[in-house]
Structures are given as structure tokens and as C-alpha cells.
Amino acid sequence: MTDNPPANILIIEDEPLLAFVLEELLTEEGFKIAGVATRLNAALVMIAAGGCDAAILDANLAGVSAAPAAAALTTRGVPFLVLSGYSPEQQKDAFPGARLLQKPCRPDTLIQALNDILRAGPASGQ
């Protein structure tokens, strides 16, 4: 058993079913959910409010690029990973330096990537 409190994860995902699945997976793995944002404006408000240790970010939120959310997370020093249906090659310019995962993603791969960015923190630029 660890003495560290569970990390608070912000989920930024516009597909309600996927957001729910992510929430369930993270909870089962011992994380706390800082919030779920389905649109860019809601994500920016939640990021500004603080309270998250890391974030999982969909690259496209209802047809709108999530790049402003990535920039806000970076400014606040919050590590994040981008989980997208687009290939990493398609996303590298929009999210430079970010950890990129493609949907569908195996749960163990996602959890490992999340733990990696939490350990690395914001210093490496993801």
C-alpha cells in the first residue's frame, strides 16, 4: 500500500460513452476523477479552476481542436496525454511534445502512459 494520495485526473472527451468508460477504468485503477469536460469551453474552465494532477485529452472536441486546452494545461504545468482517433503522426504538429495515443487504446497501455506522465511531470513537456 502506498502513502501517496491518488492522482486527480481530468478527462476531456466529447464522446459520452468513452468518457464514462475512461472514468470507470481510472477509478478501478485507483485514480480520482477531477472532472469530465465534453466541450472546449468547459475544459478551459476546469483547467483554470485547477485541482487536477494530469489530464487525458481528446484531440478533437465536437469538431473543435483541443489545442487550446493543451496549451492551458501546459501553462499550468499539468502533464497530459492526447487520446485520439487520429494517428500520432497526424497530431504531432498540433500537440508538440505531448504523449500521443491512438484510439482504440488498450487499457493497460493507457494506464501505463498516464503513470509515466505523472512520474515525469511537466518538466519534459509531456
Can you walk me through this structure?
The chain has 126 residues and is an alpha/beta fold. The protein has one domain (8-124): Rossmann fold. The chain is 40% helix and 22% strand. It has 5 helices and 7 strands; from the N terminus they run E-H-E-H-E-E-E-H-E-H-E-H. It has helices at 16-28, 40-49, 67-76, 88-91, 107-120, and strands spanning 8-12, 32-37, 54-57, 60-61, 64-65, 80-84, 99-102. It has a 5-stranded parallel sheet with strand order 2-1-3-6-7, with helices on both faces. The protein has a two-stranded antiparallel sheet with strand order 4-5. Helix 2 (40-49) runs parallel beside helix 3 (67-76). The longest helix has 14 residues, at 107-120. The chain is globular and about 40 Å long. The termini are far apart.
Please give a quick description of this structure.
The protein is α/β, with parallel strands linked by helices.
Terminal-residue CA separation: 27 Å
As laid out across the biggest beta sheet, the strand order is 2-1-3-6-7
Percent of residues in helical segments? 40-55%
Number of helices: 5
Radius of gyration (Å): 13 Å
Q: What is the name of the CATH topology?
A: Rossmann fold
Category by helix and strand content: alpha/beta
SS elements, strand count: 7
Residue-averaged pLDDT: 89
The CATH architecture comes to 3-Layer(aba) Sandwich
Tally of separate domains? 1
